[in-house]
């Protein structure tokens, strides 16, 4: 049986996968258009079902969707990121609980990353775009939002509807397309570090 490759105008998979994985990318052009509650909460519903060690579910999401809350978030976002994310109707700070009743949770970041992945894919399904970033003052975010020390700050996510490329500042317009990925043979090893699977040589 011949192998059917999954593709989009910008991306092609080496093996057959659901197209949603190729359709998810991180645009910067946002429309100033509100996201309905039932659509927005579906993203967090998807994140809710991510796998979690000991079912600790360490992820937490702080949502800013009113002008007042977004303005508060803007105070700790870098100037570069503000040039494009200021129009995003929803900003979400993703944090993870480092400790639990069991002691230190060594997989808090890993599990929260899984929750982010679920959220990002559901966003695609709902016709939304997401753009995660770490270009912000994490210490100021912690102080501004009253985040306890037991929580680690992971990333800030802009969520909304995709806008046209030409509303972006000139330097960002050429970058407004899906990025490519490394081939499997560059990062999949078998048996020990550095040993490529036979089919990937």
Describe this structure in words.
The protein is an alpha+beta fold. The chain has one domain: NADH Oxidase (3-Layer(aba) Sandwich), CATH 3.40.109. The protein has 7 helices and 6 strands. It has helices at residues 20-23, 37-48, 67-74, 79-85, 108-125, 138-145, 170-173, and strands at residues 59-64, 90-97, 99-100, 103-104, 129-133, 151-160. The strands form 2 sheets. The chain has a 4-stranded antiparallel β-sheet with strand order 1-2-6-5. The two termini are 22 Å apart. 24% of the residues are buried. The mean pLDDT is 93.
In short:
This protein has 201 residues and is α+β, with helices and mostly antiparallel strands.
Give the topology:
Blueprint: H1 20-23, H2 37-48, E1 59-64, H3 67-74, H4 79-85, E2 90-97, E3 99-100, E4 103-104, H5 108-125, E5 129-133, H6 138-145, E6 151-160, H7 170-173
Antiparallel strand pairs: 1-2, 2-6, 3-4, 5-6
N to C succession of SSEs: HHEHHEEEHEHEH
What's the CATH topology name? NADH Oxidase
Number of helices: 7
Alpha-carbon distance between the termini? 22 Å
CATH class: Alpha Beta
Average pLDDT figure: 93
The number of domains: 1
For the biggest sheet, the summary is: 4 strands, antiparallel
Q: Which residue ranges are poorly predicted, with pLDDT under 50 across at least 5 consecutive positions?
A: none
Identify the strand order in the major beta sheet.
Answer: 1-2-6-5
Beta strand count: 6
Radius of gyration: 19 Å
């Amino acid at each position: 049986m011949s192998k059917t490759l999954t593709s989009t105008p910008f991306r092609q998979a080496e093996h057959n996968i659901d197209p949603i994985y190729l359709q998810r990318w991180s645009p910067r052009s946002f429309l100033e258009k509100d996201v309905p509650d039932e659509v927005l909460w579906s993203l967090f519903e998807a994140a809710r079902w991510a796998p979690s060690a000991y079912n600790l579910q360490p992820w937490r999401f702080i949502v800013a969707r009113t002008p007042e809350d977004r303005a508060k978030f803007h105070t700790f976002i870098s100037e570069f990121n503000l040039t494009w994310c200021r129009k995003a109707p929803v900003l979400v700070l993703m944090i993870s609980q480092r400790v639990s009743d069991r002691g230190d949770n060594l997989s808090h970041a890993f599990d929260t990353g899984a929750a982010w992945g679920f959220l990002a894919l559901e966003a695609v399904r709902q016709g939304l775009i997401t753009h995660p970033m770490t270009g912000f003052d994490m210490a100021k975010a912690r102080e501004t939002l009253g985040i306890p020390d037991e929580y680690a700050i992971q990333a800030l996510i802009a969520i909304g509807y995709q806008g046209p490329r030409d509303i972006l500042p000139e330097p960002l317009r050429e970058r407004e397309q899906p990025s490519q990925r490394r081939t499997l043979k560059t990062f999949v090893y078998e048996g020990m570090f550095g040993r490529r699977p036979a089919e990937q040589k």
